[in-house]
């Protein structure tokens, strides 16, 4: 039976930096690598909020990206 083994976790924060000429939001993102695989959703939210206090632009999304290797 195949197994999925987690090999990497990243945290991506998207910030709204302004509006374009059509009035649509302009988004910039920052990805943090080397996140502990055991990190909880609450822990990642707390970390993202702490990073958010260091910038004048609001965070509009927080995404956890896990990568897996499939083995037999």
TrEMBL record:
Boundaries of each DUF1659 domain copy?
3-72
Q: Which InterPro entries does the UniProt entry name for this protein?
A: DUF1659 (IPR012454)
Q: According to the lineage, what is the superkingdom?
A: Bacteria
The entry's protein name is: DUF1659 domain-containing protein
